[in-house]
Design brief:
Elements: E1 3-9, H1 14-22, E2 27-33, E3 38-40, E4 45-47, H2 50-55, E5 61-62, H3 71-80, E6 84-88, H4 96-99, E7 105-110, H5 122-128, E8 133-140, E9 150-157, H6 164-187, H7 221-230, E10 237-241, E11 244-254, E12 265-269, E13 272-276, E14 281-289, E15 295-296, H8 297-308
Parallel strand pairs: 1-2, 1-6, 2-5, 6-7
Antiparallel strand pairs: 3-4, 7-8, 8-9, 10-11, 11-14, 12-13, 13-14, 14-15
């Protein structure tokens, strides 16, 4: 008999996980629980979460405003009689009363090497800190923030060119490969859980729009580049140029042989600019100026050459 699963998730991260569980005859997905539809983009049109948009034609999808202190919703979950409750990038902390409805175990899929980087943005945190590796932790959930006992951890390297988007995809694939056999081993009592060492715990910083602001005078080029990759997509990295927000989407680093001051813009050749930082030079490759679409730096220079050739500082 197949194990009954209720999957809680909201982002693209959960899509390959649900796909692997759904095509495995050992499991039956009873429902997907995700965040309610929300206004998105400049037009603020209401849109579903990525996982709802992808799976609503295949599975029942539930979208409660909140799961805590929601007795009516708990009755629905209880009626589905899940063997496993699984969360992956859902966006709400689950109450213990909900978790206890799982007959075998409530499981969380977390994208860090716990107890390192508890919280909502572990992928960004790993990139920001220049970590060489990250991974996926499959853990038993409790009603605390990523403090449950650990079943299994798998590691992958963080490549030099990885940003939050590419790393998220790699970790989603890894999680989708790990979860089905892990659930079977948990059900059979083969995979045992171990407590986290809370003395080694660290937590993710909260990310806001202001987090993406670049301070060329206080940050090294290496720190800025890690920030660009960590905040790719949202909130993105930005500065002010001629009174407008300038987003730097991709960049490289070069030695600051001429000792260019932090924040000063210089030309390396007619199609390449560099910006002084606290250490080396930052060379933007792709940018987006307020009111315009994303563009290669060459196109930006062609449109702003007169301003750039004056004494511009960021």
């Amino acid at each position: 008999m197949a194990y009954k699963i209720i999957f809680f998730g909201s982002s693209e991260f959960g899509i390959p996980i649900v796909n692997e569980l759904g095509k495995n005859s050992d499991f039956e997905i009873m429902a997907i629980v995700t965040q309610p539809d929300k206004p998105v983009g400049r037009g603020q049109k209401t849109a579903p979460t990525p996982i709802k948009a992808f799976y609503e034609s295949r599975y029942p999808v539930l979208t409660p405003e909140k799961v805590k202190n929601n007795k009516d919703f708990e009755k629905i979950i209880d009626g589905l009689a899940p063997d496993f409750i699984i969360t992956a990038a859902y966006g709400q902390i689950m109450p213990q009363s909900m978790l206890s409805l799982a007959k075998i175990a409530p499981i969380n899929v977390h994208t860090s090497l716990l107890p390192k980087y508890r919280g909502a943005s572990p992928i960004q945190e790993a990139i920001l800190n220049g970590d060489k590796e990250t991974g996926v932790t499959i853990m038993e959930m409790n009603d605390k923030l990523d403090e449950g006992d650990i079943y299994i951890i798998r590691r992958i390297p963080i490549e030099e060119k990885d940003n939050v988007e590419t790393l998220n995809k790699k970790l989603a694939i890894l999680a989708s490969q790990m979860l089905p056999p892990s659930l079977l081993d948990i059900a059979d009592g083969i995979l045992k859980k171990i407590p986290q060492n809370s003395a080694l715990a660290s937590y993710c910083e909260k990310i806001a729009k202001e987090s993406g602001k670049i301070n060329f005078k206080q940050m090294t080029a290496e720190e800025i580049l890690r920030k660009i990759r960590a905040f790719y997509g949202w909130p993105e990295c930005w500065t002010q140029f001629n009174g407008k927000t300038l987003k730097i989407k991709d960049a490289e680093i070069a030695e600051n042989k001429e000792k260019t001051p932090p924040g000063k813009i210089i030309f390396l050749d007619k199609n390449t600019i560099a910006i002084g930082t606290k250490s080396k030079l930052l060379i933007p490759k792709t940018i987006q100026i307020e009111g315009k679409s994303e563009m290669p730096i060459k196109d930006f220079i062609n449109g702003q050459r007169k301003l750039l050739t004056t004494s511009q500082e960021l």
